[in-house]
Amino acid sequence: GVYLFRNRPRWLLAGVCGYILSSPLAAIIIHDFKPDAFNGIWIVIGCLTALGDSTVREGHVWRRFFWAGVFFGLAVLAKSTVFPFVYGMAGIAFVLGAFLAIRFDGCKGGLSQIAKLAAALSTPMLLLSSLQFIPGGKPLLIYIKEYSFGKGSSVWSTHINVVSAKDRLRYYIAGPGSAALDSIKWVCLALFVLAVVLAVRSKDARKRVLTVCAVALAMVTYVFVSFNPTKNAFLGIPAQAFFILLPLFLLATLLDFP
Q1: Which of 18, 21, 120, 146 is positioned for an S-S bond with 152, CB 3.0–4.6 A?
Q2: Contacts (Cβ under 8 Å, ≥6 apart) of 252
Q3: What is the pLDDT of residues 63-98, one digit of tens each?
Q4: Which residue has the higher pLDDT, 78 or 37?
Q5: How far apart are CA 43 and CA 150, in angstroms?
Q6: Model confidence over 205-254: pLDDT tens digits?
Q7: pLDDT by residue (tens digit) across 131-147?
Q8: C-alpha pair distances (Å), 59 with each of 47, 101, 113, 172, 243
Q9: pTM of the entire predicted model
Q10: Residue 249 near residue 136 (C-beta atoms within 8 A)
């Protein structure tokens, strides 16, 4: 958020900082000091970077995929045990980002061009991931297997009675998981509505389509964490990070902030 508004008036930058620091993520990072918060934030930043913004110029599209790969790699470094989710979100972000690049940013749609963009994202992501997997080796893989599918998986179970699909979808909106967003929920919603209005009124087709892609990524993340059978408070952090950072990303892009 600060980067997107870095060249704006100080009062606006101060408002952005206050908005972010008043979010529950800021308190979670300090109070709990768990890797989940950093993992979730890096995932969201990687997704939004893959979609690009007004700072990306024709001929330099590969740079945003490279930096998206760096951020996804940092997400794995933060918490390697959820690497399937990180790689899955990276794949979805790549598909949507490549679509935008081919449709609006002058990239050719050939297989060679798509392969170059895929390499630009996957190379830094895998290299950074290897810093966790190579030293950890077999013990790390055993740990992931044991605590994801074995006896240790009970550590992820919840005592909250969330059964129906309706209850699961409401968990982070009006259910027990919504409490973590109470302090900033309505501010986020107001900014998001403003961004959607600007997108609809915009004459730039790329901005409208980018908005749809960004919202789709956020919805995919929310549905995943809502329907995951191993629900707990920290699993929802990627969805919460999307909820908090997505309005800033959309506003900065739609208003053509550098």
Answers
A1: 146
A2: 4, 5, 53, 54
A3: 889 999 999 999 988 887 777 888 988 999 998 888
A4: 78
A5: 26
A6: 777 888 888 888 887 877 776 666 555 444 567 777 788 888 888 777 77
A7: 887 776 677 777 767 76
A8: 20, 10, 12, 40, 31
A9: 0.77
A10: no
Residue 164 CA to residue 34 CA, distance in Å, equals: 30
Half-sphere exposure of residue 106, counting CA atoms within 13 Å on the CB side?
7
Closest CA to 220 of 90, 68, 119: 90
Nearest to residue 86, comparing CAs of 47, 127, 139? 47
Q: What does the DSSP assignment read for the chain? A: -TTTTTTS-HHHHHHHHHHHHTSHHHHHHHHT--HHHHHHHHHHHHHHHHH--TT--TT-HHHHHHHHHHHHHHHHHH-GGGHHHHHHHHHHHHHHHHHHHHHHS----SHHHHHHHHHHHHHHHHHHHHHHHHHHHHHHHHHHHHHHHSGGGGGG---S---SHHHHHHTTTTSGGGGGGTTTHHHHHHHHHHHHHHHHH-S-HHHHHHHHHHHHHHHHHHHHHHH-SS--GGGGHHHHHHHHHHHHHHHHHHTT--
C-beta of residue 42 within 8 angstroms of C-beta of residue 78: yes
Residue 160, phi then psi, degrees to nearest 5: -80, 130
Amino acid (one-letter) located at 192: F
27: exposed, middle or buried (C-beta count within 10 Å: 0-12, 13-18, 19+)?
middle
Best CA proximity match to 242, nearest among 2, 52, 44, 19:
44
Exposed e or buried b for every residue in 196-205, given b needs 16+ CB within 10 A? bebbeebeee
